[in-house]
Each structure stands twice: as structure tokens, then as C-alpha cells.
């Protein structure tokens, strides 16, 4: 797998080099073609990364998960009473509870809305069809879908472009330390909720699973900061949460709550967050996310019990388990290993093919979307039209099948919005198998295709039509400007070929065809998303058949292995495509051949500050650089015994945001002296410093003030992580990622008078394989040579 | 929770100080009492740790999970062809497969043996009882149990003391980086298998779960090194695995396979390894452990299918799911929240009480065990006698209940080795409810107490007797010298009070009493072991009732929270008791007030070597120190431009084992010169260096050789992780643990001529809270003051 991800990176790089050095903006619309990357960067190690956020290119910032151990923090920590500590712990759990509660409520709301809107739409159309008014039915169906898509798309395009798509890649990047702008705001949340309802009710081939994950994280982020950006609560105790570390934990809770709400899979949700989304993990966090998902499960369960009595319109049929297949006993022979392996292989190959094609389609869509809002809208609406035409028209191609007389009359044929054997255009006593799959909500389609003990329900031809249609829709729907999840389209595609294989095996197999559909869906998920344990648990919780577990595990492992030998997972592809500076878990092998010293050499010299610094110098540095952290270096007047006066010492690292706050609050000294602890405490609190606000352009400093001094010591992080310049990039990257850093200082290997105690500073961008290869093209060659061996 | 673990550490420390400085051996048998620690250390930061391994005090070593980037490694890695890389990957997966396969086979073997031995024993005794020959039955029962215990105990005491107990704490320590001697050998494996069969068949109150985890890891370790210590295969490709990193991964696979084999819970096994056992985790490893457990599941499943046809004697009844309760539909009201909360609270309180009392009992047992082998044997045998007397005698106290006439005659009463309604001493048509619980194997007892739709089967009095008995047995059985697991005793205890509460709730509840028993068991597990997600999945896989999941989650969360407010988990307690230098996940808050420089100051000055060093000096250093790594410091003759000649540079770290190998292979130079790459490659390979063998005492160096030189550069790890001396201990510890280090170098903060480029070296022992507090008693005080606030 490592081999492949580097292959992937390589393709990008070569293209980059062909494109040459591009403009600052990073885009070069004229030369854009399908073979070129959407984002280009200068051929140096850049510290101002750009990424594609909702079809726009934005600057993005890194997050800081390191504890900033400066004097203020230490004092604050020492002076925190046990009551405050308890308050903090209590608040942490309260927020986790609220995240679960709200995610559960919103998920119920979305389900309720979707089931009712889509249900009444389908009922009305079924009415027209029953009266043989086919054209009227078509107009009503297409029109309703068109309007629903329009609502979703207009909201996404005009108010919150970041609400389009699933949002999972951005969440993954956030938890890796990349702050994508406007991702977790209140507007995004609202647009995502309404847009998701619209898009799913419109019958588009997309799910509400990805969006629910995003909704969960939005709720978490908003709760953590006490409300929307402009109106948030400024309670003192809430502001303890206004730091990157606590927000990260809360967002992890949100992500797992979202998955739990989507699939009603509490354990699967935790594992999804652990396996796919999170970069760092602590056992305390495992426990908190588990609490959140438990709350979601209880909320969902309560509403389902409530709605079972029919108080929620068309919503509420079916229990907590979405696609229950527990009514078949799983028995298998040695022979059954063959179809299981085949399903796994098909899943892997198709999954990676899907990833490959989706990548191409997304590039194409990006070009269309860049042209303007109206193009984005038109694209979405044409996909909606095409979908409606297919869903309505194709069932007419299928022949009517007679109902199995052993079934009760109420079960076959059905005309309601749910039910397995749809009557559609067929006479009484007959059903249209393709309509059972196409003329229903996506959830119901999955339920129908997973249905067990119905070996003859679906004609192979209908399954082929269904599979082909959903392959096309799955590729062309995902990139449009509405909130869309990937899970359901993949489940639909996968279940089709799984069930087809089941029919083909016929009497050679002991496994029910419904279970084949489940296995097919699992295999395509693994082939495309490359998860194992979490998918396994999610499928277990979706289908409630524990005896299927060993086969599911084997299918998932085969599909993932097969997929990994072609390309990376779909989320990684999207991350690359968007240009988000995600830091991979494993260093590339060639990184062992490069030292951080060599990396520092090609960067501009590091800008250091003195512990007692002139205001003018600080202003100058802030205005003329874009760095977010500056090493503080001192020549102590009174060095430790045995050292010459003027011996240089590394005092730590001071952050740009803290410098801006000093300037804003005008904490200046007339003379060049060290301050006392109480002086800084009068001006700043730890909570102030955690905020990341203020830009140097907003600060006005008078000429007199320019000549004054600042004592940086109390605000300096005295314990930044460091590496010696002879350290290999591979190991520096491991440190950077494992500890969750934003800045990593490089200290000299040689010990001598006159050597600066810090020779460089590394950031996320410097450690990314792609950037290093751009700056050191010879590594690219050595990499190729090694591969050629 | 953090609060508590520090409380725990504190108790230890104060006692240590009262005891004063003790002898080198670390024990002071005269003054041993229940209030004093079993292991004592000098009041300095010690680098020669002692731990209690199977009632003996042994020296233990740290493991090295860092990649040793020296010239040889780099060359080896560059010259590895893609075929070799593929071979390595293939081998990794093959080994994971073999671990799963062998664990599955051995687990089946153990199950088969236990079910048959215990089954025939119970059948014979039931025969005597049927003939009213009660005394004969008693003698037979007690005698058989005595003999079985004797076999298990003699094996453990004489051949493999490390096979006693569950082994999980030691595995946890291993994955944290602590190498416990003789833990994973072939003798241990064999004794563990036979001992476990003996102890479980003897009806002792212990499970085979912990031992199976240990068996899995033993298999993994033996496979990784190619066989037992003395006879292992020396195939070249297998020796690529002879390093701490790959062995760690394999042992993680073994641990999860073991849990999977114990509970037939593949996903639970992976999660158990992740949540409880492992310290570091990578997603690639998640996937490999998942593969191992999938293999185990398939093997178990195959054997169960095979044995269902009656070819395995008394083994093979029942399917893959051990304690199936899926036949009840879970319905619950808001009212049911009350018993759920109560069960959780009881579980937490009882669990922590159990931990507390078990701790006391284990201390007492340690004192007994120290007296000699015969005492260990006697202790085990007396526990066996007591258990037999109770199991046989107590059912006579219960009154006979008439069978429910709705049950078929074959179901009530039963006389076979399994079955729920045991006849025992009752007339036909009556059953003895206490005998259903006591007069059967532990697995069957759990199955019976979990049995659903049998609300009136057990009298509350019988449940009280059962609960009391198993509380006593659970406390006094665990520490005896046989392989013993903690899971089953806790499940038995917990299910008893769960079911009792269920009866007490009577008609106020909708939840089946069998489910109350399940919840009780889960709550006590969480209260004692403090796991959440993995327990939840294990219980799901054990009982196959997905609808129970939300309540299980809540019970687990409450029980864990309640337990954590009293004391740490049982595994942590055992780790402390054994003195294993486990590195906690979180630094203590007071560690932020201490710098690594202060820590280095109280240690003896660091011993450095030069890049070109005299043999005499190396021999001297190796003989007179016990350090396992030495920084290499050079005054380069040709320093980089701008530096004075003689500028000192930190070249890296060389390991003791590599120095010993240099001396053994006599790779000496006549003159003081740098060697070429081919010279070192002629003598050493990367695979040689990975072996951790050879002691300085075995090396003979002549007087002439003493005057020769060694070029250490090619064997030096050029990229050791470093921290600046002003770094706080808290952050250094995070780095140490996250990256998995054995040595962490401290570099100076000041940059001046004459300063050594390395001022100290930190190891695992230096970063342990207990050791630091011993050396810095004032931190202890500040800690107390803060707590008092």
C-alpha cells in the first residue's frame, strides 16, 4: 500500500514539474486539462498552503496540538482549583453528551423529513401510475425531484459551498492538523441539514451518511466555541475549551456520533472515527466518543419507539436495525469459500476502478464548477433530471412477475412507499422487480435487495440494469453541489453484483442471496474506502447477523488487499485532489536519506527574536514574514557557571498570535528589563492567549512605541520539541505527527561559540513528501531507481 | 482517573521512604508486611529495574522500538531488492496467518480436553449421586479435582513459574517496551496449555481466557524467532523478523487471536488488543490483527461444525456463539433506566472493591509463595480442596424445585454434563437450582445463569449462596500457581448479582432476567477491568443480541466511571505489584515543573565515546557501567566552514550489544582512521546487529588488542531522538512513549565552546513518576498541596 501511495504522489509531482512554476494564486486556468493537477505550488518548500475548498482556492492554516508551556500556562495550571478542574471535566462530558443528543435529534429530523417527503412523493406518483396516467406521474416525479435538488443546490452554491460533498476528507484533515476554513460554521450546518434532506428526498444516488458525519462535527465545533462565530457565548468556563486540543477531541466525538446516527451503529461509529478519521487517539477519547455514540443510540431508539405508534407520518416503520438479515441461519461449506473469494476480488477491483473513475469525474466537475455558480447549479439539475428519467422510465422495461402464492396478499404486490414487491405498472397479483429497486428511497432499495429467503424475486436482467444504472449515477452524482455521502451509492452498487453472483451460484451455494448482496456491498465498500474493522462492525450492526461475521471479515480483507494494489482509498484521493496538506502515517523510505539540516538549508534563514526585543523589530518581523512561530534566542548576561558571557541559548518559541496580542494590548516597557510574573498576569490570561485572532494589519503602533521594548519570556513556549540537524526527515516526520506539532525546531549538531542555537524550523508543509520531492528532484530519481530494481 | 493512579503511586512511595534505602536485591524479607511494597529500590533514578516474575525477583530489560539508522541499516535497506521486500511482506502475513491458525487449533484442543475431562468427571459423579452414594461421589469429585490441580500446579511451579496467572499484565508491559524474562518461551507455552486444561477441568474458579491470550502471544513470539530459544531456525529471511518492532506487531496479533479464541469474538479480540493491551497502534497493524482473528474464527467455526456431528466426545454442543441470548426481544421503558443505572453503580463499586481486596490477597499470596515451592503447591491444593468441598456440598443446602410442566421432559431435570435444570439429589420431576450453577463447568454455569425466559428458575437464596461463594473463590483462586484467567470469575460473580437484581425488580421491569445477568456480568467486568468499547463488542459477540447494545453501553460507562473514582484497573494494580516499569499514557501534572536537565543533574555524568575509540576504553566502559547505549561525540578534525577546529559534535548513539559484537568479532584497527563502507559490511550484516546477544563477560581481549582502535561511526545510530535540557519532563515523556524509545539524549540549551553536545541520557526508569518522586521528594509535597487546594 505504501508503494502505491507513493506512486500516486509521483504522478502528481511529474505533472507539477511539467507545468513549471506557476503564479502565486496557484491556478493556471488556461492550461487546465484532465491530466493536470488542479492545484499547483511553487517549487520550494512553501509555508502558505492552498487548498480547494468547495470549488474555491483558499489559504489554509495548521492547527497546534502541542501544549504551549509558557509562564502564563504554568501559572494558570498551578492556580486552578480542584473545583475548576472538576468543572472542566464535567463540561467535557456534558459537551460530549450534547453532541450525541443533538446529532441524534438532527438525524431523526432528517430521517423524518426524508421519509415523509420522499414517501408522499412516491405515494402520489404510485397513484398516477395506478390510474395509468404515466405521463402525469412522470411530470410529477421529475418535477418534485427537480425542485428538491434545486433547493439543495441553491443553498449549497449561494450560502455554504463547503457544505457540498461528504465533508469526511476535510474532517480527516482537521484531525490531522489542517484547519479548512468555513468548514464547521453555523451556516454550513444549516445548509447541510436542509440540503441533505432535499438531495436525499430528490432520489439522487447519494446518502445522508457522509453529511451526518459532517453535521456531527459542526455541532461539536459550534458547541465547543459556544455558538456561531459572531454571536458566541463568552462564558469563562466555556472558554477553557477554546483551544485546538479540546476542539479536536470534541470533533472526534462529533464524527463518531454522525456515523452512529447514520447507520444506527454505535460501536461502528467509534471504530470508524478511530480507523478512518482520527490521526491521534487516546484511550480517554475512546471512552468519550463511546459515550457520545451511546447517547445517539438511545435518542434514535427512543424516537423509533415513539414513531412506531404512527405519530411521525410515514416515518417509523422498521426497528433500530436498518437492514436486518438475522432471520436466516448462516450455514456454509468449504465450497462456499470460492464465491466468497470471488466477491472479495470483484469488490477490490471494482472499488479501485470506481476510485479511479471518480477521480477523473471529480477533476472534470472541478473545471465545470470553477466557471461559476450558474454552471454548478446547471450541473446539479441535469444530474437530477437524468436520475429521475432513469428511475421512472427503466422499470417499464422490466416484465411483470407473478407473486409467490405463499406470500400473504398484503406483502405482494405492494403499492405503498415501502414494501418489497412493488406493483408499479403491473396487474394485480403481479409485481415489477425493477420498480422494487428503483421506485423507492435508497434505504428501501437496499432493504429490498438485501431481503432474504427471496431467491427468485429479482431477474438477473433487472439486477444488471440496476447495477449499470447505479454505476453511472454513482460516478456522476457524487461531485455535484449538494451534500452527498458515498456510503449508500457504494452499498447499492455492491449489493447488485453480490446478488447477481448469488443467482449465478444458484444451487451450488448454501448462502442466502440476500447475504450475497450484503457481502457484495461490504466488498465494494472495502474496495473503495479500504477500511476493515470498522466496516465489519458497521455491517454487523446494520444487518444483525453475527454468524456472517467470519465471511464478512474474509471478504473485507480480500477486497482491501486487491484494492490497495491499484490505488489509495477514495478519501485519500479526494484529500490529494483538494490539495489539503495531510501528513501521512508513514514516512516514505527515501526520507531516511535526507537530513532535516539539508531541508533547512534550502529554506530562507530562520527568523529569530530576542527575549527582550524592540517593538520596531517585532512589527517589522510580523509585517514582512508569514511565519506563525519565531524561535526566541538569548545571549544571557548571567550565563550558568562555566560558560562565557554571551553564550547563546534557545529560550523557546513564541507564536505570531501572541505577538499580535502583545502589540494590540500595547504591553510595552520603557526600558530593556525582565518583567515580574504579576505584570504579565495583569494584562493576559491563559484563556486570552488560546484565541487565535488578530492580524498585524489591524495593529497601529506609534513612532514612540516603536522604540520601546517587549519582554517575550513570559509568553514564550519554553519547551518546544526539537531535533538535531543530523536527524533524518523520516524520523522527524514521525515525531511531528505522533506528537501533533505545528512547529519543530532544528538545533545544531556542532557545539561551538558563535553557532546559533537554532538552525531552522520545520512545519507541516516542509515534511510533506510531495513538497520535498519538488525541492529535491534527485530523490525522485533515486526513488524510481529503487523501484526499478 | 489520573487523580487515582497518582494516589496509588503515592501510597507506594511513602512506604518506600519509610522503608529507607534497602539492599541491592531490593527485598527486605524481615520487614515485609501487608502494608509494605514487595519491591523496593534505591532512592535514585535507577537504571537496573527489578520486577517480580512468577514470585521471583528478576532483572528486566527495555525493548527498543526505534529504528537504528546506522550506515549498515541504510545500506541494507538500499540494497534490498523488491523481491526481498515482497518476501518480507508475504512473510509478515504468513506469520499472522500461522499465529491465527495455531491459536485456533490450540484453543480447540484446550476446549476439547476440558469439556471431555470435566464432562466425564461430572458424569461419573452424577452417576454416584443418582445411586445415592454421596460420599463416594464426593471422594471421586474431590480426588479428581485435586489430581488435576496437582498436575497444573506442579508444572507451573517446577518448570515455568511465568506460566502462572493470566499473563496479560506482562503482555501489556511487553507492548509498552518492557521485556519480562522467560515470558514467551516454548516451556511456558507447553506448561500454559497443559496447566490451563488441568486447572479449568479441576473446576477451579478461573477461566481459560487470560491463558489463551498468553498462549497466543507465546505462539507469535516463537514463530517470530523461528522456534524455541535453543533450537530455532536460522533461515535468512526469518531473521529479518528478529527485531523488537516486528516482534511487537506479531505479539499484538497473538494477543488478539487469544481473546478471539477465548470468546469466539474476532472483532472483540482486535479491540481488546487495541484498548487494553497495546501501547502503540498503527492502522496497518489493525488490519493484520484483524486477519489473524478472522483465521481464528474460521478455524473455531470449522471445528465446531465438525464436532457437532458428535466426533469429539463430549465437546461440540452449542454453536459459535458462547452464551446466546438472542431469543429474547429487548423492549424497554423509561422506567428501566433505574435498574440499569443501579447495575452500573453496583458493578463499579463492587469492581473496585474486588480490585482492592484482590490486591491485598495477592500481596499475602506473594509472601506465602516466596517461602518456597512446596508452599506454592500447598496453597494451590488447599484452594482446590476448598473449591471442591463447596461445589459439591452447597447444592445439598438448596431445596428441590418442581420442573415447569411446559418444559419437555428431556430439558428438566437433566443429568448429563450440560443442561440447565440439574437433577442432582432431587427426585424425578424436580431440579436443584444451585446444582445447575455449581455442579457444572464454569462455561455451562454462565450459560445457565444467562438463560432467558426462565424467570423463576433460580431461588434468590441460591443466587445469594452462589454469589457469596464465587466472591470468596474469585479472591482466593486467582493468585495460586496455575494458569488462571480473570474474565470468567468476574462474569460469574457479576451475573449472580445481576440476576438477583432482576428477580428483585420482578414485574417492574420489561427486561428478561437472563439479560439482567448479562448486564451484571458486563458491569463487574467494566468495574474491575475498566474497558468499554472492547467489552461492549465482546459481550455483543458472546450473546448475539444487538438490541441489548445501548443498555450495555450505558452500564459499562457508569461502571467504569464509578470504578475509576476509587482505584485503577486490576491490570494496572498487578503491573504495579509486580514492579514492571510500565510507562503511563499521561504525564503527571507536576512533571511540567521539572526539566529534563534537572533530572540529568542527579544522575551520574553521562558516559560518552568517541567516534574513533580505543579498544581499552570500550572494554573499560562496558565492564564498569550497566548502560545499554552510549552517545558518540566527536571533535572533528575538519569541521564545517565557519567553525573552529575541535568543535564538538553529537554523532549519535551506539548500543552496548553492538559494542560487544565488535569486541567479539575483533573488528579492530591498527591505526586511528575512518573505515570504508565495505569494511564494515565484510564483518557485520544488519541481521546480525538486530540480535541482542552477548555479554561483555564472555569477551576476551588481549593486551595488544587493547591498544588498537575501533571506528564506531558505521554502527552508530546517527539519528537518535533528542530533547533540549530545558524541556519539561512531561513533554519528554510524551515523546518517549509516543515514538517508542529506549534512550533519549539530552542536548544542551547553551551554545558555547567547551560545552559537551550531550548533557545526559534518559531511559524508561528515569521517566517513571514513582522514581522521580523518590528522587525529588519536594514534588511529592507540591503535589499534595495542590490536591489539598
Automatic annotation (TrEMBL), chains A, B:
Residues 716-780 form the CBS domain. Residues 1-12 have a biased composition (Polar residues). It is found in: Membrane. Signal peptide: none annotated. Keywords: CBS domain, Chloride, Chloride channel, Ion channel, Ion transport, Membrane, Repeat, Transmembrane, Transmembrane helix, Transport, Voltage-gated channel. One of its GO terms (cellular component) is plant-type vacuole membrane. It comes from the Eukaryota. InterPro entries: CBS_dom, CBS_dom_sf, Cl-channel/antiporter, Cl-channel_core, Cl_channel_pln, ClC. Gene3D superfamilies: CBS-domain (3.10.580.10), Clc chloride channel (1.10.3080.10). Residues 1-35 are annotated as: Disordered. It holds the Pfam family Voltage_CLC. The chain crosses the membrane at residues 90-114, 135-163, 183-204, 285-304, 337-357, 377-398, 463-493, 546-563. It is a multi-pass membrane protein. This is Chloride channel protein.
Amino acid at each position: 500500500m505504501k508503494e502505491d501511495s507513493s506512486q500516486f504522489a509521483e504522478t502528481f509531482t511529474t505533472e507539477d514539474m511539467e507545468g513549471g512554476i506557476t503564479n502565486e494564486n496557484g491556478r493556471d486556468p488556461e492550461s487546465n486539462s484532465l491530466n493536470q493537477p488542479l492545484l499547483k505550488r511553487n517549487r520550494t518548500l512553501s509555508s502558505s498552503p492552498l487548498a480547494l475548498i468547495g470549488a474555491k482556492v483558499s489559504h489554509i492554516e495548521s492547527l497546534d496540538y502541542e501544549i504551549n508551556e509558557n509562564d502564563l500556562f504554568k501559572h494558570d495550571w498551578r492556580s486552578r482549583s480542584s473545583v475548576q478542574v472538576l468543572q472542566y471535566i464535567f463540561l467535557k462530558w456534558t459537551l460530549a453528551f450534547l453532541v450525541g443528543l443533538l446529532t441524534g435529534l438532527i438525524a431523526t429530523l432528517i430521517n423524518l423529513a426524508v421519509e415523509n417527503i420522499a414517501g408522499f412523493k412516491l405515494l402520489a406518483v404510485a397513484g398516477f401510475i395506478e390510474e395509468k396516467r404515466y405521463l402525469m406521474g412522470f411530470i410529477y416525479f421529475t418535477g418534485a425531484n427537480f425542485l428538491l435538488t434545486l433547493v439543495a443546490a441553491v443553498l449549497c452554491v449561494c450560502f455554504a459551498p463547503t457544505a457540498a460533498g461528504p465533508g469526511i476528507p476535510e474532517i480527516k484533515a482537521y484531525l490531522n492538523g489542517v484547519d479548512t476554513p468555513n468548514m464547521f460554521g453555523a451556516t454550513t450546518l444549516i445548509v447541510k441539514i436542509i440540503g441533505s434532506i432535499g438531495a436525499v428526498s430528490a432520489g439522487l444516488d447519494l446518502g445522508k451518511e457522509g453529511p451526518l458525519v459532517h453535521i456531527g462535527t459542526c455541532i461539536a465545533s459550534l458547541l465547543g466555541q459556544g455558538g456561531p462565530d459572531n454571536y458566541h457565548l463568552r462564558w469563562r468556563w466555556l472558554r477553557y475549551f477554546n483551544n485546538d486540543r479540546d476542539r479536536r477531541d470534541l470533533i472526534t466525538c462529533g464524527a463518531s456520533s454522525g456515523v452512529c446516527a447514520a447507520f444506527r451503529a454505535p460501536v461502528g461509529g467509534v471504530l470508524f472515527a478511530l480507523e478512518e478519521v482520527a490521526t491521534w487517539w487516546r484511550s480517554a477519547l475512546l471512552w468519550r466518543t463511546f459515550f457520545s455514540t451511546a447517547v445517539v443510540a438511545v435518542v434514535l431508539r427512543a424516537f423509533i419507539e415513539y414513531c412506531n405508534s404512527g405519530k411521525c407520518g410515514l416515518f417509523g416503520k422498521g426497528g433500530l436495525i436498518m437492514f436486518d438479515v438475522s432471520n436466516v441461519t448462516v450455514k456454509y461449506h468449504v465450497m462456499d469459500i470460492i464465491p466468497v473469494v470471488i466477491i472479495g476480488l470483484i469488490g477490490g477491483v471494482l472499488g479501485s476502478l470506481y476510485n479511479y473513475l471518480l477521480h477523473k469525474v471529480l477533476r472534470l466537475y472541478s473545471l465545470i464548477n470553477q466557471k461559476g455558480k450558474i454552471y454548478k447549479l446547471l450541473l446539479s439539475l441535469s444530474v437530477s433530471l437524468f436520475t429521475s428519467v432513469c428511475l421512472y422510465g427503466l422499470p417499464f422495461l422490466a416484465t411483470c412477475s407473478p407473486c409467490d402464492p405463499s406470500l400473504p396478499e398484503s406483502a405482494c404486490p405492494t403499492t405503498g412507499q415501502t414494501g418489497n414487491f412493488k406493483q408499479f405498472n403491473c396487474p394485480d397479483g403481479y409485481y415489477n422487480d425493477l420498480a422494487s429497486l428503483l421506485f423507492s428511497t435508497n434505504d428501501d432499495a437496499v432493504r429490498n435487495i438485501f431481503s432474504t429467503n427471496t431467491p427468485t424475486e429479482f431477474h438477473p436482467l433487472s439486477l444488471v440494469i440496476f447495477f449499470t444504472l447505479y454505476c453511472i449515477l454513482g460516478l456522476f452524482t457524487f461531485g455535484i453541489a449538494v451534500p452527498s455521502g458515498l456510503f449508500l451509492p457504494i452499498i447499492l452498487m455492491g449489493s447488485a453484483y453480490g446478488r447477481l453472483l448469488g443467482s449465478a451460484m444458484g444451487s451450488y451455494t448454501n448462502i442466502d442471496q440476500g447475504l450475497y448482496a450484503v457481502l457484495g456491498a461490504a466488498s465494494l465498500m472495502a474496495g473503495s474506502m479500504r477500511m476493515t474493522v470498522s466496516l465489519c462492525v458497521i455491517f454487523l450492526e446494520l444487518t444483525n447477523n453475527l454468524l456472517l461475521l467470519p465471511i464478512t471479515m474474509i471478504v473485507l480483507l480480500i477486497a482491501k488487499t486487491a484494492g490497495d494494489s491499484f490505488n489509495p482509498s477514495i478519501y485519500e484521493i479526494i484529500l490529494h485532489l483538494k490539495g489539503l496538506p495531510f501528513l501521512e502515517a508513514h514516512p516514505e523510505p527515501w526520507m531516511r536519506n535526507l537530513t532535516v539540516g539539508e531541508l533547512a538549508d534550502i529554506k530562507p534563514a530562520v527568523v529569530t527574536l530576542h527575549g527582550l526585543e524592540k517593538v520596531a523589530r517585532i512589527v517589522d518581523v510580523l509585517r514582512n514574514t508569514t511565519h506563525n512561530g519565531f524561535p526566541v534566542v538569548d545571549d544571557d548576561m548571567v550565563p550558568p557557571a562555566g560558560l562565557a558571557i554571551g553564550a547563546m541559548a534557545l529560550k523557546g518559541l513564541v507564536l505570531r498570535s501572541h505577538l499580535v496580542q502583545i502589540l494590540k494590548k500595547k504591553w510595552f516597557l520603557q526600558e530593556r528589563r525582565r518583567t515580574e510574573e504579576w505584570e504579565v498576569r495583569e494584562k493576559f490570561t491563559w484563556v486570552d492567549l488560546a484565541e487565535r485572532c488578530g492580524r498585524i494589519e489591524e495593529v497601529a503602533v506609534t513612532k514612540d512605541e516603536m522604540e520601546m521594548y517587549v519582554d517575550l519570556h513570559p509568553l514564550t513556549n519554553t519547551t518546544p520539541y526539537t531535533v538535531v540537524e543530523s536527524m533524518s526527515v523520516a524520523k522527524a516526520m514521525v515525531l511531528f505527527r505522533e506528537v501533533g506539532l505545528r512547529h519543530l525546531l532544528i538545533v545544531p549538531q556542532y557545539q561551538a561559540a558563535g553557532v546559533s542555537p537554532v538552525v531552522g524550523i520545520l512545519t507541516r508543509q516542509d515534511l510533506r513528501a510531495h513538497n520535498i520531492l519538488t525541492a529535491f528532484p534527485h530523490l525522485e530519481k533515486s526513488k524510481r531507481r529503487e523501484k526499478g530494481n
